[in-house]
Amino acid sequence: MAEEVSKRERHVTVLFDNAGITGARAPRPAAPTAAEFRKAFLDGVPEEAFPNMNAVGLYWLTFAFRCREVEGARGGPAHARVTLSIPREARLLRDRPRRPAGHSYPYMFSKFAIGRATSSLAHELLPLGVRVDGTAPGLFVTSMNTLGQVDELGRVTPPARP
User: Which InterPro entries does UniProt cross-reference here (predicted)?
Assistant: First the structure.
């Protein structure tokens, strides 16, 4: 994608890295036992699902564009400022009830990884003239965070819709 954009544009001024998930959703344990938790959180999340999480895509997108675009921006007449914005929702998840977001420890871990990556990139890319902003646009109500009845295993039954 970065290569294709570079053919059409001299540089990218703003890059939004999105936080999302397409896999690695751990099933909830069937019973409150160590064996069931191990089955759900270790056996229930295949290793090959991890590349489909937030942090992996953010890493590749960030550096695919940044390595190209910083040079393009520096070559310009006014040294254009390149801004990288990463939605940072880990902070929002910190204050939620102590159950994993979207019933997914892999999802929760990736959110916190993005939060730390935002802070680190802000310092690392500063010498290149890249400004890193972490934004949290707010909570969007989805099936991953709907309030409802929570049982002893952390499973949520969403409230009935009118």
Answer: NAD(P)-bd_dom_sf (IPR036291), SDR_fam (IPR002347)
